[in-house]
Amino acid sequence: MKIAIGENIKRLRKQKGITQEKLAEAINVSVAAVSKWERDETYPDITLIFPLAHYFGVSVDELMGYNKEKIEQDILDTLEEYTNISKSYSTHHLAKNFIFEAYKKHPNDFRIMSEYAWCIAGGFADNDTQNLLDNFEELWKICERLICECNDSSIVLNAKGLKAKLLHAKGNTNEAIELLESNFSNSWDTASHRIEQLFQKDSPEYRYWNRVNVYEYAQNTALKLGRAYWYSANLTDEEKVALCEKAIDALSYARKETNEAYFALMEYDLIGIFNFRLSASRPDMVVDIARLLDKMLSAAEALTVLIKTDDALKKIFSGKVNYNPLKWEISQWNTTNHPQISKLRTEPIIIEVLNKYN
Q1: What is the rounded CA–CA span in Å between residue 213 and residue 345?
Q2: What is the full DSSP assignment across 175-208?
Q3: Residue 259 CB partners (closer than 8 Å, separation 6+)
Q4: Are 319 and 208 in contact (CB under 8 A)?
């Protein structure tokens, strides 16, 4: 970060209405020294910082150009922009350079340090072992610093998770598993579950948080199940589709019979995670993709109705007022820059499905 003391001295001197000669006389330095400060050619000796701040009637932070509130806001804005860049397919490739520059600018902010480390590592899942080994020393040092110095428990836990990945990459898998098991709890120790346990079981609050947990479990189960189907061993992609679709149809039947948001949510997320992978890797299977898309939009349509009267379901969708999963999905398909999906949406069979729900 640029030290702005020279320009601040010039600004404060002019505000005080004095010449460089007057300032030099007051601080007992040469006029040439003051001139060099103001041109950012040199900095005042450290012993002159307090006398200068006292002379101008400002804090040392202000003299040095350090504005804590401004810096904090800049960090928050940076993190928000990084999140947006990372999420968007069209700008995702820019995320690495962006966070690298942010780390140069704020090398001691633990939040940016954590994001930088995970960016180098390649994200939270499916990391390349050679990449971890190539960057082992830098990542290990960052993890150690975050674990020892940071007070944010979430960042510390993430650092321990990354440290475990590094141990596994080195071949120390048992040590990695021990580190994870000793620091991470099971699903029963989530914040939502603990909140649920605050309330009597016959209270409105308990019923609300119980529902929130039901929906969170549905989403997590759908995510894991979709990946389990996709990474099934010794199955062709066609066989994976057939296997996954049996589960989808069972969930669809249960949803229609019970009008239960749990089944709708699981159906919606299971199709979403599976069909995205299918669309990205096998766009030639357009008939299967269109059929699954139709089923996903049907589930999204059901959720759009259910969310209107279910506050717990609203929370699952980040508490968004009047959130419409159906419109969101159609919008994503119509606007995403993902190369395979961009091609798929020009297919007549896909257009027909999208128009069906418009």
Answers
A1: 35
A2: HHHHHHHHH---GGGSHHHHHHTTS-TTSHHHHH
A3: 302, 306
A4: no
Return mean pLDDT, the chain: 92
DSSP 94: G
Q: How far is CA 80 from CA 112, 142, 153, 167, in A?
A: 11, 22, 20, 31
Neighbours of 115 (CB within 10 A): 23
Angle between helix 31-38 and 5-16 (nearest 10): 120
Query: In whole angstroms, what is the distance from residue 172 CA to residue 236 CA?
Result: 33
- Here the contacts of 303-312 (C-beta below 8 Å, separation 24 or greater) are 303/261, 303/264, 303/265, 303/268, 306/259, 306/261, 306/264, 307/261, 310/211, 310/261, 311/208, 312/208, 312/209, 312/211, 312/212, 312/214, 312/215
With tokens 């119509």, the residue in question is 334
Give per-residue burial for 254-286: e unless 16+ CB within 10 Å, then b.
Answer: bbeeeebbbbbbbbbbbbbbbbbbbbeebbebb
For residue 286, give both structure tokens. Answer: 């357009």
Please compute Rg for the chain using Cα positions.
28
**CB contact set of 118 (below 8 Å; sequence gap of 6+):** 124, 158, 162
Q: Quote the tokens at residue 179.
A: 């580190």
End-to-end Cα, the chain, rounded Å: 51
Cβ neighbours, 10 Å, residue 333: 20
Q: Is residue 283 within 8 Å of residue 289, measured between CB atoms?
A: yes
d(CA 217, CA 188): 11
Give per-residue pLDDT as tens, 18-71.
Answer: 999 999 999 999 999 999 999 989 999 999 999 999 999 988 888 887 767 778
Is residue 154 over pLDDT 70?
yes
Output 45-48 pairs: Cβ under 8 A, ≥24 positions apart. none
For the chain, the residue count is 358
Question: With contact defined as beta carbons under 8 Å apart, do 5 and 43 qualify?
Answer: yes
